[in-house]
Design brief:
With 153 residues, this protein is α+β, with helices and mostly antiparallel strands. The protein has helices spanning 9-16, 20-28, 49-63, 68-85, 135-146; strands at residues 7-8, 46-47, 92-100, 105-112, 117-120, 127-134. Helix 3 (49-63) runs antiparallel to helix 4 (68-85). Residues 115-123 have low confidence and may be disordered.
């Protein structure tokens, strides 16, 4: 498990193999939200462990063909769900992402170790499909990247 410490944009972009300019654009465009945003010129945005895993999740979704806007929405759903459930990435095996007929993400279902499900956040409208993401693999990929091993999500 990664240390629960502060990580800079530079730390994350270097470890996860994201070009710094692209990472900065993702933050500036609101796709990624740091735990502590930069407060002005010369200050740094700070990310905690869950936010780092959220960045890895976002990156993994984009690599799987999900748009940045949808990936950001799904990462927000994931991080908000972690806060609501008062849990961390370490306690979740996978997430089932639910999309409506327009292809927009609506809600999520967490799968905990042993296959038990937390709370199902059912969409108001009819849903069209679901995407299952192995969070354990994404988390381990991020941890390995911070240990200096090649990123593989």
């Amino acid at each position: 498990m990664m240390e629960d410490k502060e990580y800079s944009s530079f730390d994350i972009s270097k470890a996860l193999g994201i070009p710094r300019g692209r990472f900065r654009n993702w933050v500036d465009d609101g796709f990624l939200v740091p735990a502590k945003p930069a407060s002005g010129h010369g200050s740094r945005a700070i990310f905690g462990r869950n936010e780092v895993y959220g960045v890895a999740f976002f990156k993994g979704l984009i690599e799987r063909g999900i748009t940045r806007k949808q990936a950001a929405t799904l990462a927000d759903i994931l991080l908000e769900g972690l806060r609501k459930e008062r849990t961390t990435f370490e306690n979740i095996e996978a997430i089932v992402l639910i999309r409506n007929k327009k292809g927009e993400p609506t809600n999520a279902k967490f799968l905990f170790g042993g296959g038990e499900c937390a709370k199902l956040f059912l969409p108001e409208e009819e849903w069209a499909d679901m995407l299952v993401v192995n969070l354990r693999a994404i988390m381990e990929g991020a941890e390995n990247a911070f240990k200096g091993e090649r990123w593989a999500a």
